[in-house]
Write a structure and sequence with these properties.
The protein is α+β, with helices and mostly antiparallel strands. The chain has eleven helices and 18 strands. The longest helix is centred in the last third of the chain and has 17 residues.
């Protein structure tokens, strides 16, 4: 044990601020805001920062008291969970170890560039590289501001900062070699993010707006809006889904007379629960999945994970974007229980209080996306990987049907659109499954 006098002389160590982990399935978060500035005093319980997953937004309170000594991320950065994003401690404490431990790109580089600045800047050779789609560009905030101001394609510049990071001197070196811009061309290049040609058609090689394939007559007839963070994550997930699966969609109609009659019966029964058409469709889907276990599955490359229970995901439209909460063991529920759980989860999604674990694509074995309320007659839903299929439910429209004895009449039909991964399911099985869903809808019975 250390002597008491030595214990009294020990100084408290600075503490790392960690990006929290919201559930086992969340690997990265989008940082949205620091509520304190570097140098501000922080008390335990103070609102410290805010962040988002692709499903919900969160605010983090300070768990330590002290001074905010450093931050390693800024708005819009995608941060791995459990990574150090800042430091709290006492003024003047040495925090070099935290710079080494974090992989923050912007704030760390800003500190580094401050230290290496000298009166006479060394000559820097500009090295261009091929831009890689989807690659995150490592660039300091000051370099990025300068690049955007001067319409510099910084994604194509090989940075000379730590770990290949683009810093301010790289942008300045590029500016020293680039041709002149006309004012209009500079504005268009900046707002559109266009690749700049090496030389233009103007005097002395000046780049004009026409060199950027933009008609200057319409150069002001647009608006550039920043994409919300959650939209970026959703876009990334949808792109990965299409890139990593062989998706195909089958469309089929189901006679909806039975559903409409049941809905009318429910509404006419005093004290009956508010069971919707969507509840009925999902109840029918669960019955079909129990008969086609190969569709109630995950595709894992060289393996198929078959579920004994139905964990049903249901797409919910919210102000923040589309969310897909899952009802575990949905096949154990009555239609009333299923309806109640759907309503509770939809409310939690819209209020932002949903458990992130219930929004994991891995948590559901199958998903239903219903656009019938919007009047959509046909669409192609995108699979939530690693699920092997998703059912799109369309609006009800009248269609002619043979009523027998040569008599035709118009019957209400509900459109069904099944998208499936052809790597995991054959077309024949997919067709039989969506047909079974239609059969279950047309012969649905339940107690409420």
């Amino acid at each position: 044990m250390l002597p008491l006098t030595l214990l009294k002389n020990l100084k408290p160590m600075a503490k790392a601020i960690i990006m929290p982990r919201q559930g086992q399935s969340v690997e990265t978060c989008i940082f949205t805001e620091w509520c304190k500035k570097v140098g501000d005093e922080v008390k335990k319980g103070d609102l410290l920062f805010a962040y988002e997953t692709d499903k919900a937004s969160f605010e983090q309170e300070a768990e330590e008291e002290g001074i905010l000594l450093a931050v390693f991320c800024e708005e819009g950065d995608e941060i791995p969970v459990l990574q150090t994003i800042g430091v709290i401690g006492k003024s003047g404490e040495n925090i070099d170890e935290f710079f080494a431990d974090s992989s923050g790109e912007s704030a760390v580089e800003e500190e580094i560039t401050k230290e290496i600045q000298v009166d006479e800047k060394p000559a820097v050779e500009v090295v261009l590289k091929e831009k890689v789609d989807g690659e995150k560009v490592k660039i300091s905030p000051r370099a990025k501001n300068l690049a955007e101001k001067e319409a510099v394609p910084y994604a194509s510049i090989q940075g000379t900062g730590p770990d290949g990071r683009v810093i301010e001197r790289d942008i300045e070196a590029y500016l020293a070699t680039k041709p002149k811009f006309s004012p209009l061309a500079q504005k268009v290049a900046k707002t559109e993010g266009l690749q700049v040609p090496e030389t233009g058609s103007g005097l002395a090689g000046t780049i004009k707006a026409s060199d950027l394939s933009i008609n200057p007559v319409y150069s002001d007839d647009f608006e550039i809006k920043k994409m919300p963070h959650i939209r970026k994550l959703i876009a990334k997930a949808m792109h990965q889904s299409l890139q990593n699966s062989a998706q195909l969609t089958h469309h089929l109609g189901a006679d909806a007379r039975r559903l409409l009659a049941l809905r009318k019966q429910v509404k006419a029964t005093e004290g009956a629960p508010n069971i919707t058409l969507n509840d009925m469709v999902c109840f029918a889907v669960i019955k079909a999945l129990k008969k086609f276990p190969d569709v109630n599955a995950h595709f894992l490359g060289d393996r198929i994970k078959l579920f004994n229970k139905v964990h049903l995901g249901l797409a919910v439209d919210t102000d923040r974007g589309l969310m897909v909460p899952v009802i575990k063991n949905a096949d154990d529920l009555s239609i009333t229980g299923l309806s109640n759980q759907f309503k509770e989860l939809a409310t939690a999604c819209r209020s932002g209080s949903i458990d992130p674990e219930l929004l994991s694509a891995e948590g559901a074995s199958f998903t239903v996306s219903n656009l019938g309320n919007y009047g959509v007659e046909m669409f192609t839903p995108v699979i939530n990987l690693p699920q092997v299929a998703i059912l799109g439910v369309n609006t009800i429209v009248p269609r002619p049907k043979d009523m027998g004895d040569g008599v035709y009449g118009f019957v209400p039909y509900m459109g069904l659109s099944l998208t499936y991964d052809h790597q995991a399911i054959d077309g024949g099985m997919a067709t039989r499954f969506v047909k079974q869903v239609a059969v279950e809808i047309e012969n649905l019975t339940f107690d409420f």
